[in-house]
Inverse folding.
């Protein structure tokens, strides 16, 4: 079953085209990553999914319910962790979570509230006023608020921005568990290693358009590559190898990063270096990761 | 529409709890202000003005002050809650759940009514000692208090949705709500005004709320309470329609 169906969504702010016809289908139970640089349109897209922003054209449906015309059913299925660290200073953590449950039509939800607080290490802050919490703790409450109604679809917009390692681990443990139980998870993050570790499938947005959409493993396979990092103690890189230097490391002293598509190419590179009289004093073969793919796509490359 | 849904109840509870947690500022302070009005105006004008036959000026003033407090505080509740939530960003907690437009507006308006009536009752309790008051038609008192608070609560919702900054809300309050309240006959009967201002007063909906409310106490008013009831009810329906439409359109809330 389709968890989120995004069809030709467009949104402009005056002259700025924030989203230029985005279509995505996210299946139930997926852990889906939405990546892109600042201003790519990720938060606009999430806000449209959440019903906070209305699209100029196109539509979004959550579990088959349109987020505008059938917003009540759509929102029941959705839990959103907003990017901004917002809170209501009038209430304690427990009050905040009880109120949020009530907004979703749930009374006597304390058992689940306690479980969520426990999983996010919030239990000892239950009766503390929101104002008195640290930034990391407030972020945990935001996550808890999104989960009070056990939504089948969970959307996290930069949930780990500016939070410590401990919270990240706590959060991912809990979210992974929910995902294993069948909850669909959509994540935007700037931490690409996080996306690589968590997401099964990824869409990359650039200037309001989807520029890549594939499973994580296929994306990494498609760059087919590894990177050979060499440091030369003498000599320099022969000109015929210059085209292999990856985009971000143009002759940093005697340190070079060369893109290799297959291991056999390593031998050729080493042979050329030897012939040119260069001496290698340090060498490392590095697997391509999501960051390489991301940078390549955002630099305008194609995969 | 299910007006007693859990969502509505929760939002109403939250809006009520919100002002109750800072009751010194939201309830006690306006009661003190009304008390000061009574002491100053009552002291200066008592014995000099007799608006209705057999009714002292202080007795005439008290229902006006009570209603003024009801109206101003009902407006303050919904408008300040909305603008604070908009500016701090926590309005998102109301916008993300499956609350209907009716649930949202009913909860905000009803909480405003609760605060308006709480302050009004407080003002009445502390001022009633200063004059002999009668209660000729208590039902009118209740009807106009509820309608007045409902209207101002709805105006607060509209102002809270429209305003993007605190000073815009303050302008709404200072340039619209305050003049309409002060020029509605809280402190005087509009029949004591020159002909021009008498005519102008008839275009002020607040005048009908206060005049009808006062009728409940003294059985006397500038115009028939039935006329006031009709005008006030129409005004309420018009404002509620505007507020519902703003919410439906997502005006300044869902961009």
């Amino acid at each position: 079953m389709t968890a989120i169906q995004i069809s030709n969504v467009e949104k402009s702010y005056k002259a700025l085209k924030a989203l230029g016809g985005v279509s995505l289908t996210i299946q139930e139970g997926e852990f889906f990553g939405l990546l892109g640089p600042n201003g790519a349109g990720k938060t606009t897209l999430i806000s449209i999914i959440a019903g906070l922003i209305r699209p100029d054209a196109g539509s979004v449906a959550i579990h088959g319910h349109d987020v505008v015309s059938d917003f009540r059913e759509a929102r029941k299925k959705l839990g959103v962790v907003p990017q901004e660290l917002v809170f209501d200073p009038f209430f304690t953590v427990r009050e905040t979570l009880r109120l949020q449950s009530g907004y979703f039509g749930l009374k006597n939800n304390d058992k689940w509230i306690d479980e969520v607080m426990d999983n996010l290490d919030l239990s000892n802050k239950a009766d503390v006023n929101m104002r008195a919490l640290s930034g990391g703790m407030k972020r945990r409450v935001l996550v808890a608020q999104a989960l009070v109604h056990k939504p089948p679809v969970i959307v996290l917009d930069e949930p780990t921005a500016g939070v410590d390692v401990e919270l990240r681990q706590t959060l991912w443990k809990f979210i992974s568990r929910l995902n294993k139980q069948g909850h669909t998870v959509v994540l935007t993050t700037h931490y690409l290693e996080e996306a690589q570790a968590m997401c099964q499938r990824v869409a990359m947005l650039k200037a309001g358009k989807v520029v890549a959409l594939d499973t994580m493993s296929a994306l990494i396979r498609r760059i087919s590559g590894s990177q050979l990092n060499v440091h030369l103690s003498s000599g320099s890189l022969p000109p015929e190898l210059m085209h292999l230097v990856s985009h971000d490391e143009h002759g940093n002293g005697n340190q070079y990063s060369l893109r290799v598509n297959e291991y056999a190419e390593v031998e050729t590179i080493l042979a050329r270096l030897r012939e040119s009289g260069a001496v290698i004093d340090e060498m490392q073969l590095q697997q391509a990761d999501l960051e390489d793919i991301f940078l390549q796509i955002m630099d305008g490359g194609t995969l | 529409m299910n007006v007693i849904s859990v969502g509505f109840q929760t939002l109403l509870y939250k809006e009520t709890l919100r002002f109750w947690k800072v009751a010194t500022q939201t309830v006690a302070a306006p009661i003190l202000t009304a008390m000061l009005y009574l002491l100053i105006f009552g002291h200066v004008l008592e014995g000099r003005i007799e608006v209705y036959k057999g009714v002292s000026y202080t007795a005439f003033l008290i229902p006006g002050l009570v209603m003024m407090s009801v109206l101003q505080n009902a407006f303050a509740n919904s408008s300040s809650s909305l603008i604070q939530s908009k500016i701090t960003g926590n309005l998102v907690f109301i916008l993300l759940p499956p609350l209907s437009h009716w649930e949202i507006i009913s909860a905000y308006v009803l909480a405003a009514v609760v605060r308006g009536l709480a302050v009004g009752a407080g003002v009445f309790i502390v001022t009633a000692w200063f004059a002999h008051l009668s209660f000729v038609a208590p039902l009118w008192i209740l009807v106009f208090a509820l309608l007045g608070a409902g209207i101002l609560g709805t105006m607060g919702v509209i102002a809270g949705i429209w305003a993007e900054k605190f000073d815009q809300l303050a302008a709404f309050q200072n340039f619209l709500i305050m003049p309409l309240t002060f020029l509605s006959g809280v402190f005087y009967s509009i029949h004591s005004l020159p002909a021009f201002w008498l005519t102008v007063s008839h275009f002020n909906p607040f005048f009908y709320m206060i005049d009808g409310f006062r009728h409940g106490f003294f059985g006397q008013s500038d115009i028939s309470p039935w006329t006031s009831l009709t005008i006030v009810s129409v005004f309420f329906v018009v404002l509620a329609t505007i507020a519902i439409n703003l919410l439906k359109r997502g005006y300044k809330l869902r961009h």
